[in-house]
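User: I'm new to structure prediction. If I give you an amino acid sequence, what do you actually give back? Let's try with this one:
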Amino acid sequence: MKVGEELAPLEIAVTRTLIVAGAIASRDYQDVHHDAELAREKGSPDIFMNILTTNGLVGRYVTDRFGPSAVLRKVAIRLGVPNYPGDTMVLSGTVTALCDDGTAEVSVVGANGLGRHVTGTVTISVPEGAA
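Assistant: Good question. You get back a string of structure tokens that encode the predicted 3D arrangement of the chain. For your 131 residues, that looks like this:
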């Protein structure tokens, strides 16, 4: 692993099942994440993915690249446009720093058909030789 190294992109189909399952798994029962009619009443064209699901997908993206010995130390994300059902989110990442404490920082972007859904930085520790 080196600064500037790009991670292979990961395409994630944004399905109703993924959106609802992520909301349920994170105990986020807000109706905009599972009820299309109520979401429309609140001004959204459809249900949309919650931040906790996005956070988990960003973490998975980075740990899948660095392997089972990788440990997430920090995930700091900011949401942009929503992830609606029927779209695809493409995650991409770049190693931006290698720190003296044995951690690395990875800049991550997740884009869909509307633009950037998520941007952020993941700090990860990877035992020597594991990446």
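You can read the tokens as a compact description of the fold. Here is one thing that stands out. The beta strands are 6-14, 71-79, 87-98, 103-112, 115-125.
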